[in-house]
Amino acid sequence: MPNSGACHHVAYIPSLLDTFNDFASAFHRNWKTQKGDILTHCRQELMHAVWKLLLDDDFLHAYKYGVVVKCSDGIERRSPTCNYLRQGPVSMPWMYGQKSSLDQLGLVQDMHAHSDNFREYLKDKVISARKFIYQDAQPIGGTHVNNLLKETSSVPTLNAFVTRLGDRFNPSQMLAVNLLHEFELGVWKALFTHLIQMLYASPNGTERIAELDRRFCLVPGFGNSTICHFTSNALEMKKLFAQDYEDPLQCSIPVFEGLLDGKHDDRLMKLLFRLAQWHALAKLRLHTEVTLEQLEKVTVDIGKLMREFRDKSASDFMTYELPREQQARARRQQHAEAQRKELPEAETATTSRARSGLTTSERKQRKLNISTYKFHALGDYVSTIKLFGTTDNYSTQTGELAHRLVKQYYTLINKKKARKGKQKDNSHYKHGHELDPAKKDLFPKLQDHLLGRLLDRPFDGDTHEMFTDEDRAQISIVNDKIYAVKTLRINYTTYDVRRDQDVINPRTDHCTVMVLSGVEAHNAHPYWYARVLGIFDADIVWFDTQRGKVRRSQSMEFLWVRWLGEEPNYRHGFKSTRLPKVGFVPDTDDYAFGFLDPSQVIRACHLIPNFVNGRTLELLRAPGITAARAPGETDDWANFHVMIFVDRDMFMRYLGGGIGHIHYLTSVTNADEDNETEEGEDVPNIDPGSLVVTVEDEEESDDGDDEAESGDEIHNSRSDDELGPDDGEDLDEDDNGYGSMQLI
């Protein structure tokens, strides 16, 4: 994993010393006219000189005879990656091809070129070029050298790998793709920047940019660090790490929806969907023949859609560089001018044009450019994965994350202080019970839910219409108490047979879950979605009238949820390039609110509001405060988009074929079915009639820390292993233990 901390700092390739310019200017008589070529050549020589030191005799022995390194998957892989800067007619580091064909990604002749035109290292020509430079004193960029090397974009530097590993070694075939720099920092960042430029160039561009920024701010987070909250100036893209550009891509579809007009918006939605799909497929940690075929097909689609968007949409806008780009360019120009005049930079800063108002005529025009190596390199991912394995094995994200290593040594200290416990009422549940639609028939629904689980009824959304009041009377809650729990941890097996965990917290944005649908109709959506309003557990006693026995009290966990349903007459899927759309079930439906067994939960899910449809009061007509909404909210979003691209595991749950998704294991928290009370045992006689629900939060006391913390969370394990932390781990510094829902 890129964030596993397994990166070790072995060596650093230095830059040229600051004194090198003085040395070279005194040594080389044509320094002023050939300065750029000389510096470029010396940097290349320096890098390969360092590589010759790294490729020492121990490495050569391991290279020749092998070294036993048992990885987690049992496979040994070596694959150096680097950033490729190519300036010349042939810009591909491992194949021959012309710049004019860089935008032809996905075409038949282009896909053949990726596999047929491998480069060869031209050692003889390189040696001849070096003789021109070092023996005949010919310019590095002169005619003699260019006649030998320019046609193939070669450089007059002896490759360290060929020198140390032998003339038969072809360095072009060891170069792997670089998804972080080629796609996330390359293709996607360029498109994202140009989309902002298009919005600026649209009518009312300032308002559209403000709306785009507002939408990004409203995108909820997901997971521990999968999707982080966007700042209020997300479009400025300031202080972002390289890997941070992944989040805007995964959330871009609902955020950009409707900001462009007509057919431009349709083309953009298709393009963004395919880009997110390609990104998810390319970053899979486990591939099959089917997923590689999908990746190849999507690559072809991306080439077609990008050319179509460039020719039919982007070309209709007169786009200019962004204000921040213009300001940065002005600062660079002033800095260069100050250096030429040998003036202190502080004197020029006061007259910076970047601080003054800038007109459109002062900004440079920008066009969407897909004639780049990074765009063309997307066609090499399938062949590279087949040759080297999945992209996580050679991702440069590992090196980028190593920059954060020092910052991770901050000592984590629990600053939580124990306070003397006392009881206090929570008015959120106690007041307004009769008027809150979320609490309508609350306890009968809970009885139906618990009774259905005790009778082993298949889960159908708790539509047990056959239960009568006499049946519900069989359920009793010990001591009239239901305990409110702060968090629920869902353990699950990922598509690549790894262990992972989601945390559900009703007090945060991480409160939406997905369960398997109970509908078996053709083309039915496979999942149901629900927003968790509360997490509870209680000791239940069941009067089994059929057997004439009283079951021993058992602890049962349940979730209080608000259901979401599919949008009617809405097509979605990979073929139609649309995300699933859901919305809250109207409160006029008897089953808009209900209860859910935690063992039914598959995963947390990420929902982003459909900003085009806006908010509405029609789904929940509550006159005042309601438990169904977050504090401060007075209405609901009309619809949400289900973010199937939020991570690779979620993507595979909708694409299908995930090896780890074949079996869904039951929760380890289920009570033993055979637990029954012994004859003569006293059972509380509770009348489960019309009850009022009150919640009491128990703050920690000095004598009851262990008991309080043990109720902070419920673990829902979908396997036999326990993945969660040890009992007693604190989740929040302001966590006050667990609450009790008192039935009075």
Automatic annotation (TrEMBL):
Residues 325-344, 423-436, 712-721 have a biased composition (Basic and acidic residues). Residues 325-363, 417-436, 672-744 are annotated as: Disordered. Residues 672-684, 695-711, 722-736 have a biased composition (Acidic residues). Residues 348-360 have a biased composition (Polar residues). This is Uncharacterized protein.
